Amino acid sequence: MKRFENKVCFVTGAGSGIGKATALAFAKEGAQVVVTDINGEAAGQTLNEIKQISNTRAIAITLDISQREQVENAIQNTVNAFGRLDCAANCAGVAGPLSAKTHEYPEEFWHQQIAVNLTGNWFLLKYQLEQMLKNGGGNIVMLSSAAGLIGQPENSPYAVSKHGIEGMMKTAAIEYATHNIRVNSVCPTAIETPMIMHGRRNLAVNKEARNEAINFQRMKRMGKPDEVADVVLWLCSDESSFITGSSIKADGGALA
Q: 0.90 exceeded by the pTM?
C-alpha cells in the first residue's frame, strides 16, 4: 500500500518549484491531490502531469493565499470534492525583487512579502486546522527557509516573514498536539527553483551569486525540489508520528 493512499493532500504553490515537486510526489504515493497556485495555468499544468503518472483523483484551484476568502473557499472546495483534508503542504511564497539594507528597503515589497508569506500562511493554517479538527486529525507542513532560522542580510522582509512562520508553526503544534494534528516546517537553503534562479539574485545568470549559494552548502551544491518534497512527505506520513513543532533543515549542512 502506498503511503498516502486514500489521503487528501492540499498543496499551495504547486505550479512550480518545491510545491510542484510535492504535489507530484503525493500523487505518486497514491494521494488525492488538491493543486493550488496563484498562477492557474501553472496549476493546470501540474494537474495534467499528475494525470499522466497517477490514476488518483486530483483537482486544480487558482489561489492567492493573501486573500482570506480565497483560502476559505479553497478549503471548502477541497472538502466538497473529497470529503475531508488529511495533509497540507503550504509551499506558496514570494521573495522580494531586489536586495537592500533594512533602512533602504522599499515599503511596497515589505507589505507584499508579509501579506503572502506570513498573513497568507496564517489564513491557510486557520482554515486547515478548522477542517482537521472536524476530521479528527491531520498533518500540516509549512515551507519556511533557512532565513527563518538565521538573519539574511539585504532581505529583511523575507527573513521576518519566515521567522514568523516558525513562530506560527510552533505555537499551532503546541495548541493541537492532543488533537491528532501535527504541524512542522521545512527550512531549505538554496534550492534550484524558478524563484531563486530567476529572482532577486538571478542565479541562473549571476555566476558569482550562484557560486556563493553553492559554497554556503557544506555539500557544495544546490538542492533539488524533489529533495525537499521528500522531507515534506515524510513529515506528513506516519513515519514521523512523534514529530511536531519541529523545523527540519534541508540545507546541505549549511547551518551545521
A: yes
Q: Is residue 249 part of a domain?
A: no
User: What's the domain range around 214?
Assistant: 191-222
What is d(CA 21, CA 7) in angstroms, rounded to the nearest whole number? 17
Enumerate residues 6+ apart whose C-beta is below 8 A from 136: 180
Supply the CATH number for residue 165's domain: 3.40.50.720
Is 162 a catalytic site residue?
A: yes
Which position among 105, 127, 158, 176 bears the catalytic label?
158
Give the span between the Cα atoms of 245 and 256, in whole angstroms: 20
| Catalytic member of 7, 20, 145, 162 | 162
**Helix/strand/coil for 52:** helix
Would you say residue 255 lies in a domain? no
Query: Within a domain: residue 32?
Result: yes
Q: Are residues 212 and 127 in the same domain?
A: no
pLDDT by 10s per residue, the chain, length 256: 899 999 999 999 999 999 999 999 999 999 999 999 999 999 999 999 999 999 999 999 999 999 999 999 999 999 999 999 999 999 999 998 888 999 999 999 999 999 999 999 999 999 999 999 999 999 999 999 999 999 999 999 999 999 999 999 999 999 999 999 999 999 998 888 877 767 676 777 778 878 887 888 899 998 899 999 999 999 999 999 999 999 999 999 999 9
SS3 223: strand
Active site residue 176: no
Q: Are residues 154 and 208 in the same domain?
A: no
For this structure, is 144 an active site residue?
yes
Beta bridge partners of 87: 9, 139
Q: Which of 16, 54, 66, 144 is catalytic?
A: 144
- When divided into structural domains, the chain yields a total of 2
